[in-house]
Specification:
homodimer, alpha/beta, 434 Repressor (Amino-terminal Domain), Rossmann fold, 3 domains, six-stranded parallel sheet, six-stranded mixed sheet, elongated, disordered C terminus, DNA-binding, LacI family transcriptional regulator (chains A, B), Lambda_DNA-bd_dom_sf (chains A, B)
DNA sequence: TTGTAAGCGTTATCAG
DNA sequence: CTGATAACGCTTACAA
């Protein structure tokens, strides 16, 4: 209850009968401390309940013991994305046991993404960054490099990068979805893609196009901003076309669920008249009717591996490129055999 | 490109021909600096591109210029909750323009919630906390107090608290939902509630019970953990009962959407046979079929007000209790007139 | 193996 | 109004 000032390294040194310097050495277990002294020092520290001051340490070492995650997407779009929470939990799994903390910054109306990076760096608030939602020709890589900090990117950049990366081959997930649908007899499949400025959205779209072409299936790609609203809109457009697809591969679960709503509204039965697949395998998707067939990635593992990789980079390790296990297609109820061609359209040409 | 060390306050002082102390005074615009000197000092700082070192400042003032948000819920439950992203965006709206940062910590399998608070505090990594998901008899209040830090709670605690709070009267939202349903002729309404250890979940449940009783409507409450899975399970139980409700008020949108899935699966038409309401007004709910009637709160505004309140508290303001504007019921398609009593059940007693 | 002393970049104190 | 000087709590040469 008393406002006793916390003990400092000097208190420990005095109590152990050694110098401050030696306490520091003992603490960071560096060579050159006799077992005897080390024991006495640790003992004294324990008795005093001393923990080294991060601030003192920070000032003298020039490190922050913190990593930054800047969220650039608009909060309205991101609010719906369950990926982040699981990913962040994964980061924390590692950071929390390594004395690191996670600084979360969001670009706001009054502050652009790059300013956010600059601010965190110029205040020396972080030692490194996690770069998510990699974009084509992503300026953040050169930015972080110029800031003399390190980073780990989620996915391989499409440009030269000095940083480690941790990737998931989500193209494989899309390919399984297309293969699954082709096997069910679908000959006209659409893809509702995310923004093509985002590398992973583009990679999924490319994988879709290639897989569909390889399976000799007619295909279309519609681009969206990943939101439920645009997912719904894209679905309406597709279903209203002259030759509507019999299956739609969505680039995330939210758009797939919104698409399901659109289909139901039009009286189109899923999966009888239309098959749909999602991406992310969200909990909610499993409880809709029909339950959503979706590509499952392990966001939490992605987080732990990313954190470890960043810590290694901070410790001076050479850049590495980690490839996580391939995402798996979880088949549920929203995909089924292609409908017979008779009932709808098609007699026009 | 050269590794020039960044300028320090001493450099600025030298260049301006004054002492370090005066530079500090000028910077923090404190009285006792002649306009002339101040101008010279700011000029010198600008020329040198000097920014005060947060670390030096931190060591000397004992402040961190950071606030912490500890997430205690399991990531699997929270991953689905869109509230957090919008709320965090709101916090950032304010923090980003106040030189504060947000430290996000998650309780992990290896580290309990209280240890997380303790760790952040003992490392002096934050000056204050945002306490979310307030629980009955919440230990975190005494904890933060004993840590000699400040905090802002989301909602009023049910115990004595020295901290400011920012609340939304979500009971009002639930009451509108019940009133809306009663007006539509529903005489048997259920509530799928969140964990009753969480104050806001309990408040919603209480509001439900009172409103239903006041409207002389039969009512039941089923408790869940807020997840889609338990929301679905609760719905199955309710619909399988001898006297199933004709309307269900869910404590969040995710459970409502899962409940909708369950109803559809059972061939129960919404809103013809069953009306449902959600809470949060998520984007996705708007795109389902039927579009979800839901209670809308402004999470982002909650964030900005919370951040401002916390900043005030850090500046030494007396605790205040802010009440945000009442949430509004957004009526969409998932609620409709109560079904006629004939078709289902009811002829048994 | 250990002690000494000089930083790290602020803010605070207190005579001028 | 000014300007030394001393904290703040640590790390790290350099000496001993």
């Amino acid at each position: 209850m008393s406002d006793a000032p916390r003990p400092t390294i000097a208190d420990v040194a005095r109590r152990a009968g050694v110098s401050k310097g030696l306490v520091s050495f003992a603490l960071n277990d560096r060579p050159g401390v006799s077992p005897d002294s080390r024991e006495r020092i640790l003992e004294a520290a324990r008795e005093l309940g001393w923990t080294p001051s991060l601030r003192g340490r920070s000032l003298s070492t020039g490190r922050s013991f913190a990593c930054g995650l800047v969220i650039g997407r608009s909060p309205d779009v991101i609010a719906a994305d369950p990926f982040f929470h699981s990913f962040i939990a994964g980061l924390e799994d590692v950071f929390s046991t390594s004395g690191q903390i996670l600084v979360l910054a969001a670009a706001t109306p009054g502050r652009h993404e790059t300013e956010t990076y600059r601010g965190l760096a110029s205040d020396r608030r972080v030692d490194g960054f996690v770069i998510t939602d990699l974009r084509a020709d992503d300026e953040r890589i050169a930015l972080v490099e110029s800031l003399r900090l390190t980073a780990v990117t989620l996915g391989h950049p499409d440009i030269e990068s000095p940083f480690s990366s941790v990737s998931v081959e989500d193209g494989a997930g899309i390919r399984s979805a297309v293969a699954h649908l082709a096997e069910l007899g679908h000959r006209r499949i659409a893809h509702v893609a995310g923004p093509q400025t985002m590398l992973h959205a583009r990679r999924r779209a490319d994988a879709f196009t290639q897989a569909a072409a390889a399976a000799s299936v007619e295909h279309v790609v519609v681009t969206t901003d990943f939101s439920a609203a645009e997912g719904a809109e894209a679905t309406r457009t597709l279903l209203a076309s002259d030759e509507p697809p019999t299956a739609i591969v969505y680039s995330n679960d939210h758009m797939a669920m919104a698409g399901l709503g659109v289909a139901q509204r039009l009286g189109i039965r899923v999966p009888l008249d239309l098959s749909i697949t999602g991406f992310d395998d969200t909990e909610l998707g499993r409880h809709l009717h029909p339950a959503l067939t979706s590509v499952a990635t392990d966001a939490r593992e992605w987080g732990t591996v990313t954190a470890r990789t960043l810590l290694d980079a901070l410790a001076g390790a050479d850049p590495i490129h980690v490839e996580l296990s391939e995402p798996a297609l979880i088949v549920r109820e929203s995909t089924g055999p292609a409908p017979h061609p008779h009932p709808r359209g098609g007699s026009r040409d």
